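Please produce the structure of this protein holding zinc ion.
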Amino acid sequence: MSFITDRERIDEALELLWVINEDNHHEMDYFRINSDDADINALVDTLLHEGLASISGSEIRLSEKGLKSARGLVRRQRLAERLFTDVFEMPDDAVLSDACKMEHILSEELTESVCTFLGHPPTCPHGKPIPRGECCKKFKIEVTPLVMRLSELAVGAQGRITFIVASDPSRINKLNSLGIAAGSIVRLVQKTPSFVLSVDETTVAIDPEIAREIYVRKTAP
Ligand SMILES: [Zn+2]
Ligand SMILES: [Zn+2]
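Below is the modeled complex.
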């Protein structure tokens, strides 16, 4: 039996298991097909040996320990993706490979700062959920987040929409048809009794719960 000592390869395997589990796949075959590791047998042996995963029948599942590590890795990777797209405004396809390296670099503390700075985003740019961290539960915002909910923007302030997390996906099209889409610049005209925005010379009223689902990056007026 041979084991792997390269942490990055083990981390990649943990992440892959997390990602396929999100799609409800636990089959060993599925894991093998989707892994690009050079020595999948040694990799699996290592996961079992380190107590990161277990096998039952034809399925492989993360153990509690494996889940904890994978959760942290996926969280860091998806936050890094957000950082690259929202802050550095890098194109989507360039983002993934760099984000893949970041999750091995970001410390726990730095991760919380990045998460806070980005306004505790619920999803990555690909729409996958970002596992929540301790920082996301805290009520108080110590750092002014770069990206915030539209509902938190001050009246008169202007922002560029970075992403929309619609609880009802059919809303996205409706919003898009009003010019409310990622990349659009919006100005908050009023908050009560309803939210009124101006987008491209047009004034649009939206429900407060929708304003909470739109994330903006504040821009100078
Ligand atoms: Zn992603
Ligand atoms: Zn957070």
